[in-house]
Amino acid sequence: MDFLRPACWEEALAAKAEHPTAVPIAGGTDVMVEINFDHRRPEYLLDLNRVGDLYEWEVGEDSVRLGASVSYTTIMENLRAELPGLALASHTVASPQIRNRGGVGGNLGTASPAGDAHPALLAAGAEVEVQSAGRGTRRIPVDDFYTGVKRNALAADELIRAVHIKKADGPQQFSKVGTRNAMVIAVCAFGLALHPGSRTVRTGIGSAAPTPVRAEAAEEFLNAALEEGGFWDNGRIVPPSVAKRFAELCSGACNPIDDVRGTASYRRHAVGVMARRTLTWTWESYRGTAARTEGVA
Amino acid sequence: MPSPTLEFARAGGAPLGTPTKITQGSRTKGGIGESTLRPDGTLKVTGEFAYSSDMWHEDMLWGQILRSTVAHAEIVSLDTSEALATAGVYAVMTYDDLPTDVRRYGLEIQDTPVLAHGKVRHHGEPVAIVAADHPETARRAAAKIKVDYRELPVITDEASATAPDAILVHDDRDDHHSRHVPHPNIVHRQPILRGDAAAAAERADFVVRGEYTFAMQDQAFLGPESGLAVPDDDGGVHLYIATQWLHSDLRQIAPVLGLPESKVRMTLSGVGGAFGGREDLSMQIHACLLALRTGKPVKIVYNRFESFFGHVHRHPAELHYEHGATKDGKLTHVKCRIVLDGGAYASASPAVVGNAASLGVGPYAVDDVDIEALALYTNNPPCGAMRGFGAVQACFAYEAQMDKLADAVGMDRVEFRQLNAMEQGTLMPTGQPVDSPAPVAELLRRVKAMPMPPERQWESSEGVDVRQLPGGLSNTTHGEGVVRGVGYAVGIKNVGFSEGFDDYSTAKVRMEVVAGRPVATVHTAMAEVGQGGVTVHAQIARTELGVTQVTIRPADTQVGSAGSTSASRQTYVTGGAVRNSCELVREKVLEIGRRKFGSQHPAWATAELLLEGGKVVTGGGEVLADLVDVLEDESVEVEAEWRHRPTEAFDLRTGQGNGHVQYSFAAHRAVVEVDTELGLVKVIELACAQDVGKALNPLSVLGQIQGGTLQGMGIAVMEEIIVDPETAKVRNPSFTDYLLPTILDTPIIPVDVLELADDHAPYGLRGVGEAPTLSSTPAVLAAIRDATGLELNRTPVRPEHLTGT
């Protein structure tokens, strides 16, 4: 195994172009597990740890440009206001040590349906900035990024440089079920973001389908119901029947499997419960009545 | 965040940790009853402690084991040529390369092949071993060994094991259990019959029945199996190893190597936990074989994945119970049948069966019992010793039954237990009288009397603290769906090896003057696995010999056997051996004193003399001589064996017999909060009351109770090795999917320690380590049942069980 150590982004792109099978490694929290278990023995490892601008983030007018290697800890500590859903999701990632190493670029690169960042990115709305030496930069909407189990839309010569995530213009929540109270891989997860600006609600579901997915039918139903009832303006409580239907549609968006972490039917059920609860929390927050949540970030 | 706190309380209300009055050596600092600190404690928490996996030797090779990828198969062919031809590989060995005719080993039954012989019986069975100059080279070479398996049907449960046409897991049994078992796929069966359960059932006003399932638990010690074998010039080998019992390993290793035991030298190296999982051999023989074959030191270290295959686990069990009571709440009878899955090899299964059977009724007085316990041979992973050893599975079931029966009778669940609690003098189902305090009702009273944790602790004026809620940081509830439940349980565990085993230990104690001060040296073969034995031995030596400075020699086989660090026995038995040898040393020291100074004071001849604070003193405290002056240049050394009272085997048909030497009791109250919609559980508090006879080191006692409590909680709500019933393959051999409680899952554990001396035991002490593991699990289950109203007859409880999905 060759270990490639580019000193800057251009060198990294050149290396990737030269060795399209090279596996990029930053925090190593996914790649090293695979190597340690001998599930993967790449010919080349492309170490991105010397590429400084991957650790940079920038808060813009409408969105945050988050470098691929910005750690979960950094997100929790610095971007809680702009990216509340992602900050909540970041806090559920593994242990403090792993959160100091891992970042969203790795989650996207691995594209595991269980990656904690995905539901938050889907709910917030995001674009993945990727680049190749030969063809330059393109921005892939996160909705189109996940193409299969642990597969994404990257070409062999491309690297993930940053993620552009819409700044929160309303409350966001993230909820994840695991069978212990910390340091656990998701049995299933759910992200929800209210976008009062566009009067829309977006969702993200993790670990309950071959890829991270949005519950689009549920979003459409809820968007229509909120619009119809004038809820965005009158700030009334979302009727339980609406929340219930929304939850059912979120469950329906799942296409889960039975595995050692949980059953398919539990996953469907739990996504529904999380959908209902996160809708309640965000809506209460939007109405300005929610209590603060401690212990998150 | 608020960390789990500890509350200290003990009989009489004095806080645990306050030195209690002791009859001897009270003027010598650091003696028994004090919470002296562990010598290895700081090193372990700062990461400086050298574990067995940290050893290194000039010019050493790395060993690697090739394990079977299937559970049950004939080995059609085995080709090692490509592995052998790999650069850097020094040796590849299979069954055919074993040096002697002794090719199997085992704790009691020698049924475990050193390397597979024509057949594998479980997933992960060792097939071949490789030594190479780099661990990665060894791994890759092992992967090049070609094994052609012809798969056989798997035996995975009682039905498949005892079916008329069942394949025999071992078709050549000649062990002593094989003569009495009803089927060759049953390792051992122990009935216990006392009174007339059928007749007593007729008198019962209420009868409850239940079927219970207990999952396979892993010891999950943090330091994986590892050791270093170094060839000696005389053709022997020196093995540095993390184990629970050096001499038991030695007895099994030497014959396979074809060496006399004197040529297999063993030294204990840093042990990263054990919990029963190091009672059986793992890589010991493999490392020695490779070292002797290559003439070079060979180190083997399992990774976590391999560790899941490299040691036996806690037996999963199916338990069938019937309990009866009269309308005034007295137990009439108990019938039970406990089926333990022993997996492919016997390991400690026979003794686990004996425990499950003899402790199957729990700490209750009932005259009419009909008990049957057995362990199966299957193609599942081998199971053997783990903290609680057969008593854990039974306690989970009989405590669920006691709740059911209390409800049927219409009594308070704690009062119902207290009404039926055993006490000193009660006869066990085996007919053995309990001949030391058995404060079962009192422990329940104490645990019930503790203040309840406040409700809705997640709420504050600041908002919601999700860390206090089910789901924790995963942010699944802000209080929605959360219901509190409370449950109680109590258990009984035997201490020490039972059923007639000659359970002894050996201690060598030396006393001399070094640099002008009296010093004691204690040398035993006791495996320090984290239980704190080395701390306690020094305390005993200080108390008995009146010295401040005690040197604890590394454990090795240059001294006689200490027996196993298991069965809650080590403080009792090796502690007893250290005390005994200290007493013999003291007599010799006093003899020297009498010889030198006897004429100077009449007390030398008449009074009972003690060693305290470096001096010879009378019982009244008068100083007769300084130990430095008594000993001068002389040293006094004694090596002696010490044993507890003998026990008897259980009768094979009736189970009657004085099989146990001591019992240990603990009770728990669990308070849980369950998110009933998502099926997530937060254990808020696990209050424990335990009788320890005498706390030699109160801080260590507390650590044992907390640890045991948490290990019991783990199997209640998350820990389970999942074995595919179709293939008998392990599905979750990693800490990613075998979940252990984190600190955020750890409840507050208030501990109330009772010290009622057992007059038969050294200092009146009772083994501590296992009892809290028993009652913790059923208490948590009872609390979850209380919160949800569900029956929950299985551990661990998973979200799908609580949500019906």
From TrEMBL, chain A:
One of its GO terms (molecular function) is FAD binding. Residues 1-170 form the FAD-binding PCMH-type domain. Keywords: FAD, Flavoprotein, Oxidoreductase. The keyword Acetylation does not apply. The keyword Flavoprotein applies. PROSITE patterns: FAD_PCMH. SMART domains: CO_deh_flav_C. It comes from the Bacteria. This is FAD binding domain-containing protein. It comes from Streptomyces muensis.
Automatic annotation (TrEMBL), chain B:
GO terms for molecular function: iron ion binding; oxidoreductase activity. Residues 46-153 form the Aldehyde oxidase/xanthine dehydrogenase a/b hammerhead domain. Coiled coil: none annotated. It holds the Pfam family Ald_Xan_dh_C. It comes from the Bacteria. InterPro entries: Ald_Oxase/Xan_DH_a/b, Ald_Oxase/Xan_DH_a/b_sf, Ald_Oxase/xanthine_DH-like, AldOxase/xan_DH_MoCoBD1, AldOxase/xan_DH_MoCoBD2, AldOxase/xan_DH_Mopterin-bd_sf. Residues 11-38 are annotated as: Disordered. This is Molybdopterin-dependent oxidoreductase.
